[in-house]
Amino acid sequence: MNTRTISGRLRGAAALALLPLLTLTACGSGDTGGTAAVGAQASPVPTDDPVAAVRKVDSAAALLPADVREAGKLKVGSSIGFPPGAYYPNGTDKAPAGQDIDLADAVAKVLGVELERQDASFETILPALGSGKYDFGTGNFGVTAERLKTIDFVTYINDGQGFAVKRGNTELKGKVTDLTQLCGLTIGTGAGTTFEATLTSQKGVCAKAGKKPYDVKVYSENAATLTALQQGRIDVIMSTINGLRHQAAQPASQTAFLGEFHRLDVGFAFKKGSPLTKAFQAAVDELIKDGTYSRILKKWGTSASAIDASRINPPEHT
Questions:
Q1: Rounded-to-integer distance, Cα 281 and Cα 205, Å
Q2: What span, in angstroms and rounded, lies between the C-alpha atoms of 31 and 220?
Q3: pTM of the entire predicted model
Q4: CA 274, CA 229: separation in Å to the nearest integer?
Q5: What is the rounded CA–CA span in Å between residue 296 and residue 234?
Q6: How far apart are CA 254 and CA 246, in angstroms?
Q7: What is the pLDDT of residues 65-117, one digit of tens each?
Q8: Which of 45, 101, 137, 243 has the fewest CB atoms lying closer than 10 Å?
Q9: Which residues make beta-bridge pairs with 267?
């Protein structure tokens, strides 16, 4: 074996070793398909701290139930996935960072409460809200008609579903606007996500079009999804718009973002009938009004997902 072959294989191994560091958030379409990989971002971590100046707003805090105001604490089930949503930039023994972390912390400061953050896998948070294990959940949860049957949402961004391929892919060259463009391909996505639900519910579209069906492979961790793409075991990834866009901006990921497929509102999640939603809506609106909100989104490169006002339980985008 010559030295050129050896060095080429070493470079290939090094590239694969980087994959867990470059995976995306399983988002807003409501999802994080697993817990975080250490050092989940290759680009520098933003150092500005727009949350530091946030102060309590009495009118918003007054909307909290009396027992919550007295206790001064809320339990949040937090899915720590990948940038820009929520990830561990310095290891799981250090504090998480990301857009969702900053927004939740800022809302807590407006309401004058402390957050007791408990890491949890994405698919476990929504079911746990009803039992009272958490007061609310974060994980880039997308607002869907199905989820609205059992969950209350307070929106804070507008994100959604998108697709990405390995850079240089020639089978999908442009924006995916119809799932029939995926016929005959293998699609990787996160477990328990709206992406999985969309692909599963629409699987008959290829047969109706007289084409070979697409295959769906589901992964519990996003790092595994990206590795599968790089190794050619899947042809395309379906995940969050912001996560895929961020991932494609990291040169070592070698992915290309194919654009938006379906927009979804993303919100803090609560058990149905929660008395906390009006206070959270007021807090998000305060952050929008005083400019903190726009500074947080600018920090994480998600300004295109900004909303003008928070809403409680908006209908799913059609």
A1: 38
A2: 11
A3: 0.79
A4: 40
A5: 34
A6: 12
A7: 999 999 999 999 999 877 899 989 888 899 999 999 999 999 999 999 999 99
A8: 45
A9: 141, 155
